[in-house]
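Issue: ligand-bound run for 6-O-phosphono-beta-D-fructofuranose - logging full I/O for the record.

Environment: standard queue, default settings, no custom constraints.

Inputs:
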Amino acid sequence: MTKQLQKAWDQLRAIHRTLDGVDLRQLFAQPGSRFDAFSRTGCDVTIDFSKQRINRDALDALLGLADAAGVSQRRHAMAAGEILNVTEGRAARHMALRAPVDDARFADVAADVETVRARMLAFADEIRAGTISASDGAPFSDVVNLGIGGSDLGPLLIDQALAPYRSGPRLHFVSNVDGAHLADTLKALDPARTLILVASKSFTTLETMMNAGAARAWIADALGETTIASHFAAISTNLKAVAEFGIAEDRVFGFWDWVGGRYSLWSAIGLPIAIGQGPGVFTELLAGAHAMDEHFLSTPLQDNLPVLMAMVGIWNRNLEGHNSLALIPYDQRLARLAAYVQQLDMESNGKRVTLDGAAVAYDTAPIIWGEPGTNAQHAFFQMLHQGTTVVPIDFLIAANAHESNPTLSGHHPALLANCFAQSEALMFGETTEQAEARLLAAGMSTDDARRLAPHKTFPGNRPSTTILYPKLTPHVLGQLIALYEHKVFVQGTIWRINSFDQWGVELGKVLAREILPMLDGNAAASNASTAGLIATTRRLRDTT
Ligand code: F6P
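Outputs:
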């Protein structure tokens, strides 16, 4: 660690000590609007981080740390295609996938990107128009995307988020190697009307390859082997493996090793969206992400949304010691946001060594989890308000709903009120005296009020950020996803880890390959637990 960086951390720790015992209520009682001081707008997104337990000195120290860690330089290094993924010798150029074709920063890859995008959008258009049809000449009604992780979570999130924009064949997503996932999906579909997309960067992933094999058999059994070419397309960087699988060249949409799996939805991995919602919607999504890229690359750190979100996260993780972050979209269509950001954040920054392989001396990625509000209020918010563990929260909400039906006119105001009420309750809480007074005012006896008040006490001082946007349009959704991408990048920079590899997923894959023959008794387990589980499974298998 450089002296400058060490100094920035020391400075931050010193500021943190000055806030010892200071709670959010006290911070809000100070003169001046905390909203004015601690909220920012970039593109169409406003973030209010005034309910974080920070003051101006803390914010300055956090920005000082970002500066000392070289965030400004590294954001441009990423755009310029420097090899940031040092363990795999790769760049991280996902911003090139959503940049205008004449953007000089991505000139070296722009032509390739444009060629694939034009092919993929033309293919999507033809599927939608029925000019590319099923083997019987009739249009496809359903598209099944077979992929997992980054080859699944992005398009799945977007398909749900942009449900109001659906205008093409229905989309289905199958990821799990649990055969139930494929079986339950295909059960409702007609092979004659179904297009299968095999989405895999590597084209070797066990889950996707097994599902692709089974789907191939499903089509061939129903329609004959000769129909496979009409009913399959693939998205991959491994063109050789795709050809071996038997998918024709004009049905393959490539991308490049400088696109990480969890950053790939902007590439041909987004093909389902171009088919289901249309090329125009997909293009708008890219434009939204590009707008956030511009904001990230050109805005000074103190007004830079991804930088501010990242540094608030650093504060909560490394100074306050909080080990998780809940994402609570008050937006039912963002139900899969937490799952998406789980991969983005935890696969990127769930690391324990620095870029040079030394053990980190601080905590890295928090646990990301969450569910949409208001449902979450009726499930785990009890713990968030009164439990013993403090969980920082990102609330997300649109100012406007898509629904114009008069019978729903009261829904969105109710959603907004609930969202704002939750962050306020978490921040202010309610003291035992306030709780007691409220009970007495409701007519309760003094003894009963005193007995009940501790149960009705809310400690408050629980931090949250609210992310507000006009409406969940394709453009805004692109901005929001890019916002989280860059936040994760900034945190990786602060922690000096490689946010673009994922070696931690490999060992389990190796062991699964070793264990597979053991299930049939063809090899012995290396330990008593696995041996016992396999023996019990074999016994259960035989008797049921
Ligand atoms: O196992 C993790 C992972 O490699 C992710 O990083 C990736 O998004 C996912 O598997 C799927 O990989 P692929 O697109 O190569 O099938």
